[in-house]
Records
---
Amino acid sequence: MFSSKLTFATLAILIVFTASRYAGPSNHASQELSAPTSLFWGKNNGISYLTVTRNHNIPQFCTSSWAVASTTVLSDRFKVLRNSSWPDYNISPQVALSCISGVQGCTTEGDPVSVYQYIYQNGITDETCASYQARDFSNGIACDRLAVCKNCLPNGKCDIPNRYFIYNITGFAVAKGVTQMVNALQSGPIVCRIGVTSQFQNYQNGILTPTAGAQVLFTSYVSIVGYGASATGTNYWIGRNSWGTVWGDAGFFNLVSGNDALGVEDYCVYPTPNKTITVVTTNNQGEEKRSYVDIADLHKLEEEPIQGYLRAKPVTEETLSAVPASWVWSDVKGKNYLSWVRNQNIPQYCEASWAFAATSSLTDRFNILIFNDTFPQFTISPQVLLNCGVGNCTGGDPTAVYNYARMNGIPDDTCQQYVGDFSETCNSAQVCQACVSPAPANDTENSVCNPTTPAHLFKVGNYGNLAGVTKMKQEIYNNGPITCGIYASKAFAAYTGGIFKEISRSTTISNFVSVVGWGIEKSTNTEYWVGRNSWGTSWGEYGYFKMQMYRDNLGIETDCTWAIPSF
Ligand SMILES: *[C@@H]1O[C@H](CO)[C@@H](O)[C@H](O)[C@H]1NC(C)=O
Ligand SMILES: *[C@@H]1O[C@H](CO)[C@@H](O)[C@H](O)[C@H]1NC(C)=O
Ligand SMILES: *[C@@H]1O[C@H](CO)[C@@H](O)[C@H](O)[C@H]1NC(C)=O
Ligand SMILES: *[C@@H]1O[C@H](CO)[C@@H](O)[C@H](O)[C@H]1NC(C)=O
Ligand SMILES: *[C@@H]1O[C@H](CO)[C@@H](O)[C@H](O)[C@H]1NC(C)=O
Ligand SMILES: *[C@@H]1O[C@H](CO)[C@@H](O)[C@H](O)[C@H]1NC(C)=O
C-alpha cells in the first residue's frame, strides 16, 4: 500500500498546481458561464466543506451508494450553508435504507431522487439518531417507530430520545452534462451515477482516463466535489467514493471530464438544504411537539470574543497569563477543528465512552497539529478498540487506548463501522475489513468480510495524565482537546444546555468526555469548560456541554489524559 502522508497530499497538490500553472483553454472555459477554471470543495479558499468519508460496505455488504452519496452530499451542502462552522451535520443514510420502500436497498441500487423526495416529504435525522448498519427494510432494519431516531439505555431497551433534530431540504434538481454540472457545483457537491469498470475498482491515484470499450460491471453513485485541469491541459472531475479510505486516493478520485467518462456526466442530482431545523420534543406524557430553529441560532459554544483578560478567580501561576480568556477548538479564527459528535449507545447500549472520548480527542489533535483542518475528514475508529480487547461495553481506560495507539496505531472508521459489541482478542479482519457481495438475505445472515490493509494507522507518540485547571488549559491551548473522566450523575444525563454545576459526592469516574476548550459567561463572570460527550446530538448542546470551572464539578478536573499524534 501507499504511504499515508503521500496519499493525503496528492489531490491537494494537484489543485495547487492547477491554480498556479493552468493557463490554456479548457472545456470549462469554452462555456458561457463565469465559473472558475478549478473548484474543489475540499479546499476552497483554504477551507474544507467536505464531511467525513464513508465505507458503505461495512459491517455488511450493501449496494447503498445511492443512499450514502446522496446523504453525504446533503451533509456537505449544510456545511457550505454554515460556512464550514462547528458542528458538522452527518445526515443518516440508514433512514433512507430503512424507510424508502420499493426495490431500493442493500440488494438493488436505488436512486438519489427517491432520497431527496423522501427528505422533502419527511425530513431526515443524523447519524447519531440512526447509525449506518448496512441493512435495509428487507434484511434487518425495518422502518419501525425507532427507525428515524433512537437511543439505547443501560437496561438494554431503546427508545425515542426526548429531543432530536430533523433536517429538511427546500428542493432538489437534476444536472446533466459539463455545463450544468459545473453550474451546480458552484453551490456545493453533487451526486452522480457512474458505471464501474475494473479499472475504476483498481484506481489508486492520478487522473483516471477510462480504456475505450471497457465493460461496465455495475452502476453506482459517487459525489463530485470539484473539477480542475492538469498542467498538461487535461480537464478532470474530483470525486469522492464511499468505499472507505483504503480505496483510491484516501477514498477520492480524479476522472477525466468532458467526454462522459464512465457515464458520469449523464445523471447528477443535488439538493438545497433548508436552513430551518425542526426540533422534536416529547414530554413525559409522550406528547410530541415540533418547534423550528434557524441554523444560525442553533449552535453556540462561546460568548462573543472577549477583549482583554478577565478571570473569575485569580490564578497564581505566571504561565497561565499566556493562555487566552476563552479558547474553544470549535472556532479558532473562524476554523472548526472538532470532529463530529457520536453516539456510543446505538445500535445498542455500550459503555464505550473511554474509546469514543479518547479517539475523538485524538482525531481533533490530528486535525490541529498535523492536517490543519484540511480534507479529507476521517474519524479514528473506537470499534477497533472494542474488537481488540482494549476495553469492553462496561468500561475501559483512555490511557490504555493511547498505549494501544502507540504500539499498533488505530485505523479510521471506514475500516470498522461502530456496532457497539466487543471481543477479547482481535484478528486482522476486526482491525480492517472489506465485506464482499452478496448482501445478507435476511436479518440473521451476515456478509463474508475479509481482512484488508488500512490506508493509515493513526499513532500516538507520548501520552500522559494531568489534573487541575492550569495544566488542563495549557495542554488544551498548546495541543488540542484532552480526555477527562467524570462522574455521570442523573442531573448530567438530563442536561439540555447552559453551564452545568454539581459538586459530586461520588468519586467514581463513570464516563469519559473530551474537553475541547473553555469560555466565560460575562454576565456572571463564570468560567466554564466546553466538553463533548458521546451520547448523540440529542443530548446537551448538540452533544456538547458547558461545565463551571474551578470547582471540580463531577470530578472533571481530576483525571485527564493527553496524547501527541504521530504517524
Ligand atoms: C455564512 O456566511 C455568510 C456570509 O458571510 C453569512 O451571511 C451567513 O450568516 C453565514 N452563515 C452562518 C450559518 O454562519
Ligand atoms: C420539509 O419541507 C417540505 C417543504 O417545505 C415540507 O412540506 C415538509 O413538511 C417538511 N418536513 C418536515 C418534517 O419538516
Ligand atoms: C423550510 O422549512 C420550514 C419548516 O419546516 C418551512 O416552514 C419552510 O417553508 C421551508 N422552506 C422552504 C423554502 O421550503
Ligand atoms: C492553517 O490554515 C490557515 C488557513 O485556513 C492558515 O491561516 C494557517 O497559517 C495554517 N496553519 C498552519 C500551521 O499551517
Ligand atoms: C469488562 O472488562 C472488565 C475489566 O477488564 C472486566 O472486569 C469485566 O468482566 C469485563 N466485562 C465483560 C462483560 O466482559
Ligand atoms: C436467512 O438466509 C439464509 C441464506 O439464504 C437461510 O439459510 C436462512 O434459513 C435464512 N434465515 C431465516 C430466518 O430466514
Note: The CA atoms of residues 140 and 229 lie 45 Å apart.
---
Amino acid sequence: MVLKENLQDTQRRILEACKRSGRRREEVTLVAVSKTKPVEMLREAYDLGIRVFGENKVQEITAKYEQLPTDIKWQMIGHLQRNKVKYIVDKVSMIHSVDSLRLAETISQEAGKKQVVVPVLLEVNVAEEESKFGISVRETPSLAEQISVLPNIQIQGLMTIAPYVENPEENRQIFRTLKKLSIDIAGKNINNVTMNVLSMGMTGDYEVAIEEGATMVRVGTGIFGARDYTR
Ligand SMILES: *Cc1c(COP(=O)(O)O)cnc(C)c1O
C-alpha cells in the first residue's frame, strides 16, 4: 500500500519536473532502485508497472533475476569488480558504473563469450568526492575514445552520483556539468559512442536532475522506503 502511494507520488513529481522544463515524460526512465529490498517488494512494484530495476551487488542481481519475470530490465548501478562481470554480463540491460579501461575490457571479453553487446555508461565523479568511484570530467573524453574500439560493449552515455545534500539546488551545477560533458563528447562523433543517456538524480534531487536533462533517474528510498543495512 505504501509502495503504491510512493510510486504514484514519484511518478507525479517526475511528470511535473518534465512539464516545468518543457520535456516529454517519455524522455525520462524511472529506475526503481531495489537494492537490499526483498523479492516480494520488487514483485509488488512489478505488478504496479515497474520494469526497470537498479541494483548495486552482483549476487543480489543474480538471485533476484532467477526469481522475477524475464521482461525486467536490470540496471547495474554499483561499483563492479572485474572478476564478477561474467555473472551478470548477459543479465543486465545496462551497466551504469564503468570507470576504467580495465573494467571495460573485461566487460567486452565476457560479453563476447556470451555473444551479447552490453550498453554501458561512464561513471563520472563530477563533484570529485574522495569517497566515490568514477572518473574525473577531464579524463572522460579520452576514456570514451579508448573504450569505443572494444567489441561487445557500447557507451550510451554518462552517469553521476551527486553528493548528499539537504537542498537539491546545491546539486544543480553538478547535473549541468554532466550534461555539458555529454554534449562535448557527442560533438566528437566517436564511432560506437552515443550520448543519449544521462543517468543522474536520486530520491533527494531527481527533480532538479530532470530539469537539467536527466534521461534516467535512480530512485530507491522514495519508492521502497529507507534501507536497513543491519540485517
Ligand atoms: C542506492 C543508490 C541510488 C538510490 O538512492 P536513494 O537515495 O535511495 O534514491 C541511486 N543510485 C545509486 C548508484 C545508488 O547506489
Note: The mean pLDDT is 97.
